[in-house]
Structures are given as C-alpha cells and as structure tokens.
C-alpha cells in the first residue's frame, strides 16, 4: 500500500522492527489498549500493546470504519449492503468487516475516492 502520493508509508510497530512499511498490512483490529495487526503472508495476526489511535496517527490514508477497525483501502475487494443500514466490506484474503452505522457515509466516500485516484 502506498500513501496518496504513491510512496510507501513508514510504520513503527513496537516489538516488530522488521515490519517498517504498511505495504502488506490489510487491517488493524483494536481491543482496549491492544491492537491486532493483520498482514498478508502472516498466519496469525501480530499483537501489539498500542491502541488503534496510535496506528491511525501514523497512517492517515488508512480508513477508520468502526471503533475497533482500521483498514487499508488498497485491500478492499468488495462493498455490500447486508441490511437496511448495514454495510460490509470484504478484504482480499476473505476478511469481512462491518462498517459502523455512523461512519458509513464518510468511510464509503474515502474508499470510493481512493479507488478513483488509483484508477486514474
């Protein structure tokens, strides 16, 4: 994944110095003051003792879709409406994440904008 300017973003994950770029990270899942980092090619998610806000500050091009999920827009495979107000994202690799009801319009706009920039 690259930032909107086309460059890989630098990343600091405490306890995992070998991961220094966001290129292979599909999403983050937060739980209290811990975060699970889901990366391509890694069997189990990486556990770090930082909050999701820590990573959101480092990666402004990632999209916060709910209180507990931060996604890489490059990994969005499809968007589907699963209910009257519920919208689900399917990421490459098969992960399905629900967008928070209040974050749906802004999240979908950012995903659409990212895809438009990428295709042009």
From TrEMBL:
Gene3D superfamilies: LytTr DNA-binding domain (2.40.50.1020). GO terms for molecular function: DNA binding. It comes from the Bacteria. Keywords: DNA-binding. The keyword Magnesium does not apply. SMART domains: LytTR. Pfam families: LytTR (PF04397). The keyword Oxidoreductase does not apply. Residues 51-113 form the HTH LytTR-type domain. This is LytTR family transcriptional regulator DNA-binding domain-containing protein. It comes from Fibrella forsythiae. The lineage of its organism: Bacteria, Pseudomonadati, Bacteroidota, Cytophagia, Cytophagales.
């Amino acid at each position: 994944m690259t930032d909107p300017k086309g460059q890989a973003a630098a990343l600091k994950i405490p306890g995992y110095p070998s991961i220094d770029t966001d290129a292979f990270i599909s999403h983050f899942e937060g739980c209290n003051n811990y975060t699970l980092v889901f990366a391509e090619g890694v069997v189990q998610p990486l556990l770090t003792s930082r909050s999701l806000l820590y990573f959101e500050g480092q990666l402004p091009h990632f999209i916060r879709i709910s209180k507990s999920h931060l996604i890489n827009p490059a990994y969005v495979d499809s968007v589907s409406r699963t209910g009257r107000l519920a919208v689900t994202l399917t990421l490459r690799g098969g992960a399905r994440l629900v967008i928070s009801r209040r974050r749906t319009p802004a999240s979908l706009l950012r995903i659409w904008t990212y895809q438009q920039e990428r295709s042009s």
